[in-house]
Amino acid sequence: MEDVQSFKVACLGDSHTRGTFGYSWFRELECRLAGDGVEMANFGVNGELAYNAGLRLGEVLAFEPDLVVVLLGTNDVNAIASPSLTQRYVERGGLPQTPDKEFFVQSLEQIVVSLKTLQGCELILVSLPLLGEVLDHVANRLVDDYNREIFQICEAHGLGLVDLNERMKAALADAGKGAFVPHQDGRRLMLVSMAKHYLLFRGWDAISRSHGLRLLTDTIHLNERSGRMLVEMLSERILRQMGPR
User: Is 212 inside a domain boundary?
Assistant: First the structure.
């Protein structure tokens, strides 16, 4: 009987993909697709901008994936939405310039062009999640602006798009009236969230509720509910791309 080769999926991103500061959608997706012959690799690194991820493409190319999922840009936005963190991003990331939208677009374009050199490999870009849950907050206006650039890149290169942002907005609309928590720089809430999860063994959704949030743990990272939205959309797209095996 002929062996069926695994379908290799690489996930390139930041802390959303790494999955230590919030719900690991990657781990659930990996478990869900394991029985379908999918081999997955996590190329998420905490705190990285698109520029930094572009410097690591050799790792992704060496994996020889059949499909690459790219979720990048949250730190690019956060570096602008949280001015107190801008210089920290520049110094820790070794950035050649102060981050702005043009820098993000250029970096993401270079990633896409490089990954398209992989013969037979499909690319899926994921829209940026919300930053905080107040939709008209300056942080989410920036997210919308960056997502428009992601949509344009998808259209220009004929790439697949998974619109997580739209799903999250719809979920908040269904939640009805009530207080919504705006974006914060995330450091304090992030540390509190991690302590609650790793020391007190509380689930990410419970942590969100304790912070007055619905879809985010610390106004930045995904909880179980929003993470599973992404899992549902990605699993459907990946299985459709694989076809019968």
Answer: no
